Amino acid sequence: MLTPRHQALLMTLAGMTVGVAVFGTVLAINGNGDDKQSNKVVTSQTPPTTTPRGDGLQADSLQYTAQTFGTEKNPVSAEVPSTWKVTQDGQRPRFLDPTGVWQIRFDTRGSSKSPDRQVSDRERSIQERQLNVLSRDNGTLVYKYVDDTRGPRMGLSRWISTDNGDSTAVEITVGGRPQDEAALRAVLERATQTLQVSTNRPS
Description:
This is DUF4245 domain-containing protein. The protein is α+β, with helices and mostly antiparallel strands. It has helices at about 5-45, 115-125, 180-195; strands at about 65-70, 75-80, 85-90, 95, 105, 130-135, 140-145, 150-160, 170-175, 195.
């Protein structure tokens, strides 16, 4: 039979055992909570993006259709992007995309000036802020500027001759943003390659 002293000692040991067990349980719970919180912090982090935006007009996304303009006696035709709609007809037609960002326009009135002279005259006449001429070769003027409302813009103007460069038959100009350069060049080349000019044009 246990004496009162032995009973008190057993009760003390039992209390210590329970205390250690409870303390261990608390540590385990807290430890798990810390792990979960740590996981949340790690998984909530987003790695930096290195993929370019690629928000420019894509040349391979364009489809083309033939358009005829000019006059009934002296028609001119060329292929333009199929979704770009005519906003001005006649001898100076303009085709604009639905968003209003890109365009191609023609001037079929002709001129006695050579394409090279046209390039020089146009370069001097452009009244745009921060004009930067990129090239002026082979009857083609390529330039950038800043528009007051639309921001950075890019233009490519080409003058086509049908008499070995003595005069100009048609002017083609495409416009957009600097990031659209590759597509703008593709549109200009397509229009140039498919251009059909009437042989009845006055001399």
